[in-house]
């Protein structure tokens, strides 16, 4: 009986703990302000004191008091002001560059890595590492090597 | 080759972006030349009511199209004048049509009730429709003739004398 009660208590504790983990943190004005635009000024809400920004802030405060989560408040703002109220670049015109540039840069970087890796892994072509000498140098080299093999210094001086 | 194509695409996009930042002045230029150009039209939700409406629904009437927001003091100041104008022109084939934008509908409705506005108001949530008129600020008013063309504009608050000078000739025109 005691074991059954202990198991039940443990299950209850786990269930309540799980519920606490699942609950969203309470929304706050500073957390939302930097993700929302002041519609008239074109800056983030936390950077503006324009009249429309004050109205937006008042609306966010009201929604926080009503116990709304951050996402619910952002949805309510979009419902009233449209998607432009979220601090995201436009998905058309000039704003499109904000999405495209990082993708293009990432693709170019990946292509660069692939090209560099291929070059490093490629075996050297035969003869490519030993460029041919001009005839006078080749002649001198042969002479000095022969002198070295004989253990005698060449007439140009000692080897080394 | 792919790198060059990507770089060229980016340059084109940047050039387009820079070019598109400029304000469209075609409405003001047409009015200054004495010409009338077709007013932009878009279906918008009715403020505080069901359904949608647009400028096209008022074709055949002279429309005083007023862009406003409840947080803008000059917009609020001119609401009584616009309501008086509505009462003067509605029997002569004219109407005021408010377009509330970048505003909370709850706040806009509160002002609409406070000033007992009898004229219709639409909601342009983020101001996309207002942008088609190249609006610069709040409030702005455009007078649209019976054929749906912009005949006059006021970038700033309207006053009685501007309305008295602008509306009678347009109201006298046939459709």
Report on the structure:
The complex is a heterodimer of chains A (160) and B (175). Chain A is mostly helical and 160 residues long. Among the domains of chain A are: 24-88, Orthogonal Bundle (Helicase, Ruva Protein, domain 3); 91-119. Chain A contains six helices and two strands, in the order H-H-E-E-H-H-H-H. Chain A has helices at 2-22, 29-33, 51-65, 70-81, 96-121, 135-150, and strands spanning 37-38, 43-44. Chain A has a two-stranded antiparallel ribbon. Chain A is rod-shaped, with a radius of gyration of 37 Å. Chain A starts with a helix and ends in a 10-residue tail after the last helix. Mean pLDDT of chain A is 79; it is low at 16-21. With 175 residues, chain B is an alpha/beta fold. In chain B, the strands form two sheets. In chain B, strands 1-8-7-4-5-6 form a six-stranded mixed beta sheet. A two-stranded antiparallel sheet of chain B has the order 2-3. The N and C termini of chain B lie far apart (59 Å). Classes of the chains: A mainly alpha (160), B alpha/beta (175).
Question: Helix and strand layout, with pairings?
Answer:
The complex is a heterodimer of chains A (about 160) and B (about 180).
Chain A: H1 2-22, H2 29-33, E1 37-38, E2 43-44, H3 51-65, H4 70-81, H5 96-121, H6 135-150
Antiparallel strand pairs in A: 1-2
Chain B: H1 2-20, H2 26-32, E1 37-38, E2 44-45, E3 52-53, E4 62-68, H3 73-77, H4 79-89, E5 94-101, H5 105-114, E6 121-124, H6 128-132, E7 140-144, E8 149-155, H7 160-172
Parallel strand pairs in B: 4-5, 5-6
Antiparallel strand pairs in B: 1-8, 2-3, 4-7, 7-8
């Amino acid at each position: 009986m005691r074991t059954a009660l202990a198991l039940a208590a443990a299950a209850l504790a786990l269930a309540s703990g799980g519920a606490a983990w699942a609950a969203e943190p309470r929304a706050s004005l500073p957390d939302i302000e930097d993700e929302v635009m002041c519609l008239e000024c074109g800056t983030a809400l936390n950077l503006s004191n324009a009249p429309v920004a004050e109205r937006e802030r008042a609306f966010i405060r009201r929604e926080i008091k009503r116990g709304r989560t951050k996402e619910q408040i952002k949805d309510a703002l979009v419902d009233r002001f449209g998607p432009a109220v979220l601090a995201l670049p436009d998905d058309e015109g000039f704003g499109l560059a904000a999405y495209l540039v990082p993708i293009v840069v990432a693709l170019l970087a990946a292509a660069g890595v692939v090209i560099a890796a291929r070059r490093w892994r490629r075996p050297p072509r035969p003869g490519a590492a030993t460029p041919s000498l001009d005839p006078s140098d080749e002649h001198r080299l042969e002479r000095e090597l022969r002198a070295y093999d004989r253990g005698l210094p060449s007439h140009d001086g000692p080897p080394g | 080759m792919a790198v060059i194509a990507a770089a060229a695409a980016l340059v084109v996009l940047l050039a387009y972006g820079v070019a598109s930042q400029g304000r469209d002045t075609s409405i003001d230029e047409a009015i200054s030349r004495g010409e009338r150009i077709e007013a932009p039209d878009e279906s918008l939700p009715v403020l505080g009511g069901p359904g949608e409406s647009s400028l096209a629904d008022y074709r055949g009437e002279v429309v005083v199209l007023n862009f406003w927001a409840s947080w803008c003091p000059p917009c609020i100041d001119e609401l009584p004048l616009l309501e008086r104008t509505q009462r003067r022109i509605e029997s002569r084939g004219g109407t005021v049509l408010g377009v509330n934008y970048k505003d909370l509908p709850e706040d806009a409705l509160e002002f609409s009730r406070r000033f007992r506005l009898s004229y219709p108001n639409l909601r342009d949530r983020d101001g996309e429709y207002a942008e088609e008129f190249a609006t610069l600020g709040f409030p702005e008013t455009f007078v649209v003739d019976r054929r749906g063309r912009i005949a006059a504009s006021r970038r700033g608050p309207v006053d009685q004398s501007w309305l008295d000078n602008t509306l009678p000739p347009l109201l006298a025109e046939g459709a």
